[in-house]
# Entry
Amino acid sequence: MIVGSLLLLGLFVFPLWNITLEAPQYPTPLGMDIHIDKFTDTHEFDIKNINLMNHYVGMQYIPETIPEFKIFPIAIGIMVALGVLIGFTGRYKLFIVWFVVMSLMGIAGMYDFYLWEYDYGHNLDPKAIMQFKNPDGSVMGFQPPLFGTKDILNFTAHSYPRTGAYFMFAGMMLTVVAFFVGKKEVKK
Amino acid sequence: MKTLFKSILALFALSVITVGCVDNSSKKGALGNSAAEKVYVAPGEHDEFYAFVSGGFSGQLAVYGLPSGRLFKVIPVFSVDAEKAYGFNEETKPMLNTSHGFIPWDDSHHPDISQTNGELDGRYVFINGNNTPRIAKIDLTTFETTEIIEVPNSAGNHSSSFVTENTEYVVAGTRFSVPYPQRDMPISEYKGNFKGALTFISVAPEDGAMDIKFQIMMPGFDYDLSHPGRGDSHGWFFFTTYNTEEAHSLLEVNASQNDKDFIAAINWKKIEEYVNNGGGTKAPANYAHNVYDEHSHTATSTMKKEVTVVNPLDVPGAIYFMPTPKSPHGCDVDPTGEYIVGNGKLAAELTIHSFSKMIKAIEDKNFDGDAYGIPILSYEATLAGSVKQPGLGPLHTEFDGKGNAYTTFFISSEVVKWKLGTWEVIDRKPTYYSVGHLMIPGGNSRKPFGKYVLAMNKITKDRYLPTGPEVTQSAQLYDITGEKMELLLDFPTIGEPHYAAGIPADLLKPNSKKFYKLDENKHEYAIRSEAEAKVVRDGKEVHVYMTMIRSHFAPDNIEGVQVGDKVYFHVTNLEQDYDVPHGVSMIGANTSELLIMPGQTETFIWEPKQVGVWPFYCTDFCSALHQEMQGYVRVSPKGSKVPISYTLDDDAVDSE
# Structure
């Protein structure tokens, strides 16, 4: 349990998620890593260049920072501390409670990410240089996929978890394992 | 009839099929080692070597890929280049400053790549300006000329610009001897009064900064070509001479009388030590030293007023002459440093001297008189051997590092392969036509890459589509991996290719810069965002601080400029991505466009002569909205009350 929750600390070091954009003119793809507290370039100046590309279709600039970057580190920090505390108490039922809370937070985080992505891809400048319509006549959006790969005009966008997320998943799984191990020991 | 027709048709079809089959099989066999396949670099693939080929009377340096022969870039060095604004923008004008003022042209000859421990290190390529003696240094991270130093007391800077084993020096020798010091005197008093300066330019190990360490004032011969010693002969430099007759007119006859001219062997380490210990004379001089700074994106020109001059007689034991038949041109040292080839262009044989024999002859004082006090070594004492009946008019020799040498013959128009040590001719292949230099990548080093030889021709006549009276010069690529050479490719070159320098692409590719960082831009008029854009009047001068990014200028509407103003456009490219330059040009500006790399600032001057509203635009197709990348300047009459204003999208640019 303790190890599991401590693995969450990996989120402070490694990126949680990555969005990569491929296009013929970008033999080295453009990429953005999402950490729990910041956006970073995969290669130097990638975000600047993503913004430059996106301004043609009226997308907003990727902000320097978002409110979530303040909340996430605190939330993760608290969960790590709680996890370690619960671990010391050895009360296995609390383990699963921690896991459920963490999962809910994860889902909330993903939903929040989706909302931002949706806004990013659909809230377009009405003076956009190029405006594209879907076959049904609605305004084409440029929302990157939440998870997976998607073609958007000349770009292929990839959106996948990164090392930080794997640390988190592994940690969360360990807490579940800890729950079952704890349960077994009590039964004995 | 129908049946007949059908059977004929059937026969025809059958024959097509069989012929097709035969064709296929034979093609496969031939393609396996065809010349076409050897030079084919598939789309998107890279060449194995870079070749830096001098532009001769174009004054520039061309960058080709080998084996494909594709031209990648023409690096402006000694001549202005409107395409890149070299010599046109305010930043690079100082690069072409000399003691004679701004000179927009030169004749570039012999590129040579910097070395460490006798092997190519790919930091810089040096090249000489022949007409107004200069040495230029090109930085191989940016492929831009970053330093030019003028060579005083020299004329026809031809036996240049070759580097020593650790790039301690880049060496520049004079072809034409001139009075020293320059003065008003009768030309007919040449003999004994003119001097030939051999100049050793030190190259700082950390940043490559060039500085003239010393000049040796040699007798008034013509110093034609040179190469450094290496290995055991490291510390020596060898120069061919002609016109040891010291003729001053009709040289084609009068400088071709002596049976033998000399190869001058210079122990530069000895002279360096002499100079380091305070030797030599600090003589007054006047020469330009021009340096381009990568961070300020600006060149400065400094006039230097002094040079250290060495009289050969003051350093006994440092300089010797090796007699060499006849009017030797190329002076080439093999990768081991033992053999010094004198390509006697009017000689029947190719003469090879031995360095170890030379040292022994010096020790034994095996002299054959002296010339102006410089000992002449006995011809037989230094001779290693000679290649008999090699061809007509030998000019230059390169080496493959496997014990073979390759010599060009101008008159018989061929490349001849021969063996070092046995001096036997192994192969000869024609060139089309009248070959000058040849180049094996790493040829002037301990470690040649003996896969190809590139022969550079002076004349092409009927080899390409005719283009009026002036036709292209050419280079020809031979495969030298086998016993016999094989001609693979024939491609046109810019200007006249003299020497070239080649290097494996893998040694340069990783170092090639992609763009300049905006936050490292130290240009005096750089701005780092659109918010900083402005237009400032200073009397009759108007300074426009402008930015460019896909796909607009900021500001793009400027008013308040007047006829008679001198308008400086200081334009910064805000992009930070690979291969996104922007250009800018202004109608009626008496200069070239600017072609500005990401993160770079450049300046051009416009002096409006007519009232009106005049457009400017981006000259490099930068983006989908390139055609929209344009702006206007309103020019009012002299003394007009229209105030200076500058906007983007009708807003003050700094309002963002």
Q: What stands out?
A: Chain A touches chain B through nine residues (CB under 8 Å). Chain A has a mean pLDDT of 92. Chain A has one domain: 2-187. The radius of gyration of chain A is 20 Å.
